[in-house]
Amino acid sequence: MRIWQHFLNMILPPRCIKCGQVLSERNGICADCFAKITFISAPLCHCCGRPFAGGADVKFGAVQYCGECLRRKKRLFMMQRSAFIYNDESKDLILNLKFRDRTGTAETLAGLLYAAGNDIWKEKPDLIIPVPIHRLRLLQRRYNQSALLCKYLAQKTGIAADYAALVRQRNTVPQVQLSGTARRNNLKQAFAVVYPQNIKGRKIVLIDDVSTTGSTLNECAKVLHKAGAAAIYSLTLARTED
Fold first, then answer.
1. What distance in Å separates the CA atoms of residue 147 and residue 1, rounded to the nearest whole number?
2. For residue 43, is the peptide bond before it cis, meaning its omega torsion is within 30 degrees of 0?
3. CB atoms < 10 A from the CB of 130, how many?
4. Which strand (E) or helix (H) includes residue 167?
């Protein structure tokens, strides 16, 4: 196997999934690109995963919460985490996977997700679910990038992935074209649970590529709660800066 891999690397040398630089290992990120990506690490809000610039609002031992999470009476998510900040240095990682058919990058990106979700895995979730795309968009794009990430996360964690229980029943306008209230209205009744028996009593991790306003994840969480989910977590590759 090693001989075959060496031969394959000679013909098709592994390259950085961001800049294309030749690497010693397949499907990695070169040191220069890695250093430019703003990875999210502590200190951060234990609930929403928002990184703190100058320390936490409140500290309870090692657990820290932002002011917004402290004020919120009801939380859709037990915990939310993202691997890195979505900005000019990182956006190509998302765009290559989502729109440019660079599906081969999904395994490496799932590795970043796995590391970012360390706190979530400690909670022993039962199920991993990708944020779904509408069947018409799936026909156009040919794949759901979040489902690809789920596939590799399931392999790394040993947690089952469910690709069928949560569906997108309305082909909505892309969220990037909208803002504020329009985003929330665009997603009303967009998602549905078609196999509630797969959801009831389960601790679920929602997987997506980017969290911007959080509208998409929130709408998914609402229908999962309605279907009887015991707890919901979210894990995304990136989140926008506040």
1. 28
2. yes
3. 24
4. strand 166-168
In what helix (H) or strand (E) does residue 127 lie, and over which residues does it extend?
strand 127-130
Token code pair at residue 115: 């590391």
Torsion of the alpha carbons at 88, 102, 214 and 37, rounded to the nearest 10: -30
For residue 14, give the amino acid letter.
Answer: P
Q: Rounded distance, CA 90 to CA 76, Å? A: 27
How is residue 10 written in tokens? 């000679």
Residue range 29-69, pLDDT digits in tens: 999 999 999 999 988 999 999 998 765 455 555 688 888 89
Q: What is the DSSP letter of 155?
A: H
What domains does the chain contain, in order, with CATH numbers?
A: 74-239 (3.40.50.2020)
**What is the pTM (predicted TM-score) of this model?**
0.88
Determine the Cα–Cα distance for residues 129 and 150; give it in Å rounded to an integer: 7
Tokens of 120: 């979530």
Instruction: From residue 209, give the alpha-carbon distance in Å to each of 83, 92, 235.
Output: 10, 12, 8
